[in-house]
Amino acid sequence: MTITSLLVANRGEIARRVFRTARSMGIRCVAVYVDSDSDAPFVADADESVHLAGGYLDGPEIIAAALTTGADAIHPGYGFLAENAGFATAVEKAGLVWVGPSPHVIETMGDKLTAKQAATAAGVPILPSSDDPTLAGEVGFPLLVKAAAGGGGKGMHLVEDPDSLAEAVASAQREAAGAFGDDRVFLERWLPRSRHVEIQILGDSHGNLVHLGERECSIQRRHQKIIEESPSPAVDDTLRAAMGEAALSLAGGIGYSSAGTVEFLLDDDTGGFFFLEVNTRLQVEHPVTEEVTGIDLVREQIRIAAGEPLGYRQDDVTTTGHAVEARLYAENPSAGFLPATGTLAAFEAAATPEVRWDSGVETGSHVGVEFDPMLAKVIAHGPTRTEAVGRLALALERLHLAGLTTNRDFLAATLRHPGFLSGDTTTDFIQRLSPATELEPDEGELTRASITAAMWLQEQNRAHAMVLEGIPSGWRNARLPDQQVTLGHGDTRIEVTYSSRRDGGFRVNGEIEARVHSWSPDGIDLEVDGRRSASRVTGTDDKVFVQVSRGTVGFDVIPRFVLPGSEEPSGGLIAPMPGVVLDVRVAAGDTVTTGQTLVVLEAMKMEHHMNAPFDGQVSDVLVVPGQQVDSGVVLLVVDPLEAVEGDA
Question: Which helix (H) or strand (E) holds 359?
């Protein structure tokens, strides 16, 4: 059949990515959205958008939207209902085309437990596992508690010893139920020194099945991938052929069609590989395969759904060069990668180097707590791994990004790390090598950035001057002190003084010569002691963000006069992000020990345990289960034990 109109049952960057390919095929695009996404870019990108009262998991409402708008087919993207066999069945029963594997394949392969059984039947090695938590001893420690449905690291917890098992299972069940509507979990042996390597497969309804090589996705935090690449630096032709054959054997046994991924764990010590799971959908990291093979996976999905044959065989699949993808998240790497929220004051990629941006946001976009905090995927392709990695790192560093805490600096530091460049990319990379979590400018970089901020601010003041706007900045008819701007960067307080000179330049901090060559509301061309550069600058009510060579440096603009305000209580346990209080495990008067879980928050479908920072006694509990809290809210107050004993 011919697909002329496609509804994408998803949001953000994946909706925009599917739209892009569909339009190139002459297909009209329909979006669905909820209230919190009403201003999101993907809604405006669609030819038509339908509001969902029930949310992205409301299958009947999504199908009704497709029928109302005259869509021929539904593409589920990834997440939400992408691996829901019941939804796929309902789509087909409604007379619509389902862009994905058959409901039978989704049910068989999308469930991790059933997929393991299929892998065993196909002769593919698996890790010791059990769906019975009482059999943890047979599985062995360390182990992972994993959700039987879904993916994305949700419902997944690493357990080092038996004492931690019960809480990990309970937490995983709650997360799995909330994210996938299925609270089943299972246990699986954890290999500390391993690589996450997956094989991309494509099959059609005519019996053709090929694989497109491997992707390595070992750089992970919270068991979620953040950097992926193809090919893997650890896979040679012999291993690639063996893994590809295993993937095709497993998929061929059940007549797989559409795009899918067979995931393996590669033991870095022995070179042995073990089956993990099958993802019966498009993967977040699919662009790296597209870049090295030249095959548009969304186009293939749509063609296969329309009944077309692949038109090529395994021998026709070739790869060129190397591709690397980084996932840009709103999160704080310095605080255990906790999700962050806020509004993007700036999100502007540099024109060079040329990389692929699959983005769900733009300047002005708001990131809340309702959904996964991924902002964009950035993909670089090059003739060699070194060039691809360098290009990606530079593109991230040159991204002008302001107003929201992200993992951008951490991604760039990881890509620049000698361990990554050498291919030492096992799943314990972050814990083992500890890349820098944020940009730490040296004294010279910070000084230059602060001068840039001060000069931009003074030019902005002149541009908005209501009186005497023709007089040079800082002009005096008598000898008076220099003008001064006070900036804050983290715990550092920086004072920049400047005075204008007769030649139009400035003397800064008493000895530095500066000259503004041009200024605009979003940048400045500044020369400082003979070094000239054009910098992107974004200012808000109380902050200014300056683009430097390694990223974006943010400053608080400290007012000359500060009104007295309330202070946080000493010993207050602060909510690190907006969320919902799931559990409060202490009461006023309780004695607590360092590391003890006091409050459990849920944000973005994942649980976050708030632990006691020291031994002490709870003096006040300020929240209750079910309460929605904002970032920075005091949850409870703990007094240090020595202070309590001293008062006694």
Answer: strand 356-359
> Has residue 566 got a pLDDT over 50?
no
pLDDT band (50, 70, 90) for residue 149: confident
Q: HSE (CB half, 13 Å, CA atoms) of 576?
A: 21
How far is C-alpha 459 from the chain's CA centre? Answer: 36
Residue 13: strand, helix, or coil: helix
Pairing of the two strands 143-147 and 129-130: unpaired
What is the number of alpha carbons within 13 Å of residue 637 lying toward its C-beta?
8
Q: Specify the 3-state DSSP secondary structure of 647.
A: helix
Rounded average pLDDT over 205-209:
96
Give the mean pLDDT of 585-592: 92
Q: Tell me the pLDDT tens digit for each residue of 408-447.
A: 999 999 999 999 999 999 999 999 999 999 999 999 999 9
414 touches 451 (CB < 8 A):
no
The tokens describing 157, both together, are 């917890």
Q: Give the orientation angle of helix 385-398 with respect to helix 408-416, to 10 degrees.
A: 150
Local confidence band at 569 (pLDDT 50, 70, 90 cut-offs): low
Long-range contacts of 137-144 (CB under 8 A, 24+ apart): 137/162, 139/187, 139/188, 139/189, 140/189, 142/189, 142/190, 142/192, 143/187, 143/188, 143/189, 143/190, 144/187, 144/188, 144/189, 144/190, 144/223
List, for residues 447-494, the tens digit of each pLDDT value.
999 999 999 999 998 887 655 555 555 555 545 678 999 999 998 999
Using alpha carbons, select from 354, 352, 343, 451 the residue that is nearest to residue 405: 343
Do the beta carbons of residue 16 and residue 37 sit within 8 Å? Answer: no
Question: How confident is the model at residue 646, as a pLDDT?
Answer: 63
The answer for 161, left when phi > 0, alpha when psi is -120 to 50, beta otherwise, is beta
**What is the Cα–Cα distance from 113 to 147, expressed in whole angstroms?**
10
The DSSP string of 230-289 is ES-TT--HHHHHHHHHHHHHHHHTTT--EEEEEEEEEETTT--EEEEEEE-S--TTHHHH
Helix/strand/coil (H/E/C) assignment for every residue in 41-55: HHHHHCCEEEECCCC
Distance CA 489, CA 491 (A): 6
94 burial (CB, 10 Å; 0-12 / 13-18 / 19+) is middle
Produce one character per residue of 535-560: b if its CB has 16 or more CB atoms within 10 Å, e if not: bbbbbeeebbbbbbebbbbbbebeee
Instruction: Give the C-alpha separation, 272 to 274, whole Å.
Output: 7
What is residue 99's DSSP assignment?
S
Pairwise CA distance, residues 178 & 195, whole Å: 29
Q: Please give the domain boundaries of the chain with CATH numbers for all domains.
A: 5-99 (3.40.50.20), 128-189 (3.30.1490.20), 443-557 (3.30.700.30), 572-647 (2.40.50.100)
pLDDT for 472: 58
Environment class of residue 460 by beta-carbon count within 10 Å: exposed (0-12), middle (13-18) or buried (19+)? Answer: middle
Give burial (CB, 10 Å; 0-12/13-18/19+) of 24. Answer: exposed
Give every CB contact of residue 602 below 8 A, 6+ residues apart in sequence: 178, 579, 580, 582, 608
**What is the length of the chain?**
648
pTM: 0.86
Q: Give the bridge partners for 199, in sequence order.
A: 214, 262
Q: Which residues is 386 bridged to in the sheet?
A: none
